[in-house]
């Protein structure tokens, strides 16, 4: 997510997706309640994110991605037996059908990984998914997202995809499949916490898109493909690599203030600043800041200096705006530290968010009502029809 300086995210009830009254707004559906959910709560005023009652800070510091996925899908944190069972199910699903591998292999090496992931999920869904969305399908999809990405990443380097290692967790196996090396423990911890932090975030654009598709009684793969299309956009999940580009463009501590001041005064963009919901610090950004500090101290110094400088200049030049770094700002620093290329940042967001998307798809499907909002028509009402031969 970026900020343009001058002008500047329980089970459904029967009426989920309907709008009992038409509420005027400026666009973007701010303030419109489109569904009820027991999955996560975003408190933008207090700067809190809660997954099924648990504070995100506690989960990010103490839980694995698998535990959080279980929480989102089943409604409670797993005990040791339940966690072991979920790991076994993940391991069993760590395969790619040959047809899907063929499709990935035939895509050009310069394809965007988000496009590759969308294509792979669609192809996999065409041959593997049928019937009403289920938890088994949610597990199958979530297990395969990192495999699809890693396979393409290997192919574009002239290498063959690797077999998953059953002893590795979700984050560690993803890093192994990308590099062919057992990852460093600090990299696994950093990526695992990232996956926990990004697993769900209320009724954001991609989740809403997934629920709309699910509300038509379409299949889980179609809902996920639609969600991926929404996440790709730079106003939603497509900004982390652009944060990295901005930091590289600034280049040094000495250049930070003149670069940022120029961007603010000329209407440029500060990537990774501002959020549609949070009016204070994004709690995910707070966790990622500390992880980035540990994972890559040298690069963190410049990123942190840019954050502090931008905040000071925004307070000076745009007072009262309350614009802070969002989750994407330090996501870039952390993912760069664990060795991911910039074009894998947003797809890795999807690796995490697949758990939340599928939880919302299941919630929608279990007590469904077609999501069909109203639109306020602003065009003419009384035009006179003129036959084609008489039009001038």
TrEMBL record:
The active site is at residues 275, 328. GO terms for cellular component: cytosol. Pathway: Carbohydrate metabolism; tricarboxylic acid cycle. It catalyses: oxaloacetate + acetyl-CoA + H2O = citrate + CoA + H(+). Keywords: Transferase. Residues 1-24 are annotated as: Disordered. GO terms for biological process: carbohydrate metabolic process; tricarboxylic acid cycle. Pfam families: Citrate_synt. GO terms for molecular function: citrate synthase activity. Belongs to the citrate synthase family. NCBIfam families: PRK12350.1. PANTHER family: CITRATE SYNTHASE, CITRATE SYNTHASE, PEROXISOMAL. This is Citrate synthase.
């Amino acid at each position: 997510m970026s900020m343009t300086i001058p002008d500047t995210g329980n089970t459904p009830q029967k009426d989920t997706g309907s709008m009992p009254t038409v509420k005027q707004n400026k666009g973007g559906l701010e303030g419109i309640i489109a569904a009820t959910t027991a999955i996560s709560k975003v408190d933008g005023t207090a700067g809190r994110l809660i997954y099924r009652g648990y504070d995100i800070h506690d989960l990010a510091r103490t839980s694995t991605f698998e535990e959080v996925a279980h929480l989102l899908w089943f409604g409670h944190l797993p005990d040791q037996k339940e966690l072991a069972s979920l790991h076994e199910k993940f391991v069993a699903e760590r395969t790619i059908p040959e047809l899907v591998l063929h499709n990935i292999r035939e895509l050009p090496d310069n394809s965007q990984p988000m496009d590759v992931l969308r294509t792979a999920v669609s192809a996999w869904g065409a041959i593997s998914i049928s019937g009403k969305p289920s938890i088994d399908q949610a597990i199958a999809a979530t297990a395969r997202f990192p495999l699809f990405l890693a396979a393409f990443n290997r192919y574009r380097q002239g290498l063959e995809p690797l077999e998953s290692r059953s002893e590795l967790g979700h984050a560690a196996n993803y890093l192994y499949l990308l590099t062919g090396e057992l990852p460093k423990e600090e990299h696994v911890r950093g990526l695992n916490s990232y996956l926990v932090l990004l697993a769900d975030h209320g009724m954001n654009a991609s989740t809403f898109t997934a629920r709309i598709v699910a509300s038509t009684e379409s299949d889980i793969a179609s809902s996920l493909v639609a969600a991926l299309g929404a996440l790709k956009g730079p106003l939603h999940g497509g900004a982390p690599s652009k944060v990295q580009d901005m930091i590289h463009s600034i280049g040094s501590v000495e250049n930070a203030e003149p670069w940022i001041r120029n961007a603010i005064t000329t209407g440029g963009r500060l990537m990774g600043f501002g959020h549609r919901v949070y009016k204070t610090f994004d709690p995910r950004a707070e966790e990622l800041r500390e992880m980035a500090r540990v994972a890559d101290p040298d690069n963190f110094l410049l990123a942190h200096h840019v954050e502090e400088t931008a905040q000071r200049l925004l307070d000076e030049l745009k007072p009262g705006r309350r614009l802070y770094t969002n989750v994407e700002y330090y996501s870039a620093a952390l993912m760069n530290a664990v060795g991911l290329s910039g074009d894998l940042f947003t797809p890795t967001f999807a690796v995490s968010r697949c758990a939340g998307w599928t939880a919302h798809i299941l919630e929608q499907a279990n007590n469904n009502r077609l999501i069909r909002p109203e639109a306020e028509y602003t065009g003419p009402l009384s035009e006179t029809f003129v036959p084609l031969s008489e039009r001038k």
